[in-house]
Amino acid sequence: DVLPTAPEDVLPTAPEDVLPTAPGDVLPTAFRFDVPFRGEPSPIAPFLGKATLVVNVKFDDPISREQMPGLQSLLSRFSKQGLHVLAFPTDQGWFEAEDSNTLRIKFKTSYDFGQYPTAVVFDKADLLGGNALPLYRWMSAELVNPWGLARVTLNYEKFLLDADGQPVRRYPRRFPPEAMEADIAAVLAGSPLPPISPLF
C-alpha cells in the first residue's frame, strides 16, 4: 500500500513546477486546476464545495474498509452544509486492476460513494513524478505530511480545502475520518481551525 519512494518519484517543489507566482500574479488556488473525469480534463471548480476533502484512494487496499465508510459518514453529516469529497485513484504503488469507470461502480456499490458533485471518483492518474496531476503537485508542496515530506507516500492521505480552494490541513493515511469533524465544521463556518489532533 506504499507508493513508490524512488528519487524520481519525489514531487518537484520549485514554484515553477507548480504554478507561476511572479509579482502581480494571483496566488494559486485549487479552482485553477483541471482534473481527469470520464476521459477528459475537466475544470475542478464544479466539484469543489465550501469545504472539500481530497483523498487518494485504492479500492483493494484493506484500509478502504475503514476509510470509505468514515468518509461517507462525513458526507451524510456535512454535505448539505457544503462538504464535498473528491477521490483520486492511481496505478502508482499497488496496481489498481480495474479501469476508471469500473472503479466508480465498485466504490458506489461497495460504499455508496458516488454522487455528483459531492462525492466523485475521478479517473486514475499519476500522483507522483513528472506526470503527477498538477493539483497534487501543488497541494503536496503547500502542506507537508506529519513526517515533513511533501510528496504523497501512502494511500488515503487526505487534504482539506477551504471555500477559497486553499489547502488548510493534511491528514495521514490512518487518520480516522470521524476525527476530522471539528476541522470540517470550522471550515464550513469560516472559523479558524481547532488545534491539531493528537491523533496526528
Quick description:
It comes from Calcidiscus leptoporus. The protein has 200 residues and is of the alpha/beta class.
Main features:
single chain; Glutaredoxin; 22% helix; 200 residues; alpha/beta
Write up this protein.
- This protein has a single domain (31-189), classed as Glutaredoxin.
- The chain is an alpha/beta fold and 200 residues long.
- It is 22% helix and 17% strand.
- The strands form two sheets. The protein has a five-stranded mixed beta sheet. A two-stranded antiparallel ribbon has the order 1-2.
- It starts with 33 loop residues before the first strand and ends in an 11-residue tail after the last helix.
- The model is unreliable at 4-25 (pLDDT under 50).
List the helices and strands and how they pair.
Layout: E1 34-37, E2 40-43, E3 51-57, H1 64-78, E4 83-89, H2 100-111, E5 119-121, H3 134-142, E6 158-161, E7 167-171, H4 181-189
Parallel strand pairs: 3-4, 4-5
Antiparallel strand pairs: 1-2, 3-6, 6-7
Proportion of residues in extended strands: 15-25%
Distance between the termini: 19 Å
Under the CATH scheme, which architecture would be assigned? 3-Layer(aba) Sandwich
Number of helices: 4
Helices and strands, in N-to-C order?
Answer: EEEHEHEHEEH
Whole-number tally of structural domains:
1
Overall strand count:
7
CATH topology: Glutaredoxin
Oligomer: single chain
Rg: 16 Å
User: For the record, what CATH class applies?
Assistant: Alpha Beta
Largest sheet: 5 strands, mixed
What is the CATH homology-level superfamily? Glutaredoxin
Integer average pLDDT: 87
- The dominant shape is globular
Query: Which range best describes the helical content: under 10%, 10-25%, 25-40%, 40-55%, 55-70% or over 70%?
Result: 10-25%
The helix/strand class is: alpha/beta
Low-confidence blocks of residues: 4-25
The strand order across the widest sheet is: 5-4-3-6-7
GO molecular function: peroxidase activity
Family: Belongs to the glutathione peroxidase family.
Keywords: Oxidoreductase, Peroxidase
Pfam families: GSHPx
